[in-house]
Amino acid sequence: MPEIKDNDDAEDLLQEIYDEKVPQHSVISKRDFKPWHNPRKHWVRIHQLCSLAQRLFKDIKLPDDTVRYLTLPGEELLDIQALQAIAKAEAENPLDIQPPEITAKAGTEELLDIQAVQGTLEGVKGKSLKLKYIGFNNVGKNKNRIAAQEHTESFLKDMETIHQSSRIINGLVQNIANEQSDSYMYVRDNGPYNIINLDLCSCIAEQRPPSENSTYFDAIGKILELQRAQMSQPFMMFIATRTEPQDIQPDSLKKIISVYDNNFKENAEFKRKFEELVVQQAEELLNRLRAGDTVPQEALNKVFGVGLGKWLLHLMKPNPPHWDVTLEHICCYSIGSYEDNMLSLAFKFTQVNVGILDRIGLIKMVTGVKTQKTEAELATEMLEKCETIINVDTLLQSDSVQKDKIIAQTGRLLGNAGYSAEHYTDWANSLFLSPQISATG
């Protein structure tokens, strides 16, 4: 069994898996590649989604050897495909795909994320795991998008690692917030989930028409409410969100900013680390954000990312059962005319079991009593994680070997979804020769 020495070795194994022959379905050979087909999206799938999912699978018990996955996959389910490919490598050569060190400089339309997730399953812990996914893809009555989704699902459901009761719901993920909706019932009845992947093309705090009552925050709150009631093991939540100022609802931004106030008052160390992180006075920066003034995008990303983490802590930490929330990985890339305005964050949720504490002293030996981390300590760790956010655009521009591997893997997954892998390679390489402005993804 060959030794896996580093991340490059892991990617070499992945490349071999992607080169394997796959079940043949009708070839559409589409060439109309979309902004969210950009290779950087697949870098995030491998180095954030797949890597952290693989670690999770090794540390938890899975009832019926089934991974439950809630996602916004798009038509080609690429997240599932990628995880399936990694799993085959794991079966023969156990490997640990580590994301790059944070100190390094540096839900799509096609169900890409589902294809990625599926690849980590086979062979983890020597078992053949199954993936049961519940996805939301708002295709409406668009026949072309419906046909593309059905094409990819027919390919995926030929795989032994896909649970046959998996399904994609035609609708908005925000509908989960309505307990009377079919969306809520599907999520409730098929959970709890080991992985929740909210890959948003828009901003999590987006401004919405008055007619649309439920927000992404409402949906996340309902999902976590169900997780608290049904889950006791650690689980992951991935959130990708745009952060350009004009897309952020001002009242939501003020509420996100408000989570810092108590920590600033009660924890001098937290405030000191925050000011080191944003390179200016805390009150000055937050007051500028509250007033709607322009601030550096890098500072906004850090305030917004840690603020989301602190909000999740606020939902999960105070009341029993207590849950710790940790920021495991964070990266960014650019969309449109803004720099670094797409954040991709990975949060891990772990229920805290402090054991029995006998204050009377009748029990001779008490085991399992643990000291809980405070909310301020967990928030400070989030700040430390944000000291250097990985810029995926910069990383791939400067590393041609990794870029070529990522392009080849993405082309393979898109080929399974009916696209021309050969033309994808030409298209993807052109992005690096003459960088194009992406509208979304």
Topology:
Blueprint: H1 7-18, H2 39-59, E1 66-71, H3 78-92, H4 112-117, E2 130-136, H5 143-156, E3 167-169, H6 182-190, E4 195-199, H7 216-230, E5 235-242, H8 250-258, H9 261-266, H10 268-278, H11 282-290, H12 297-316, E6 323-333, E7 342-351, H13 375-385, E8 390-391, H14 392-398, H15 400-416, H16 421-433
Parallel strand pairs: 1-2, 1-4, 2-3, 4-5, 6-8
Antiparallel strand pairs: 5-7, 6-7
How confident is the prediction overall: mean pLDDT?
81
Summing up helix and strand content along with how strands pair, one would put the structural category as: alpha/beta
Cα-atom Rg, whole angstroms?
A: 22 Å
Uncertain segments: 1-28, 87-109
Helicity level: 40-55%
N- to C-terminal separation? 39 Å
The count of β-strands is 8
State the strand order across the main sheet: 3-2-1-4-5-7-6-8
String of helices and strands: HHEHHEHEHEHEHHHHHEEHEHHH
* General shape: globular
By DSSP (H or I, 4+ residues per run), the number of helices equals: 16
The share of residues in extended strands comes to: 5-15%
Largest sheet: 8 strands, mixed
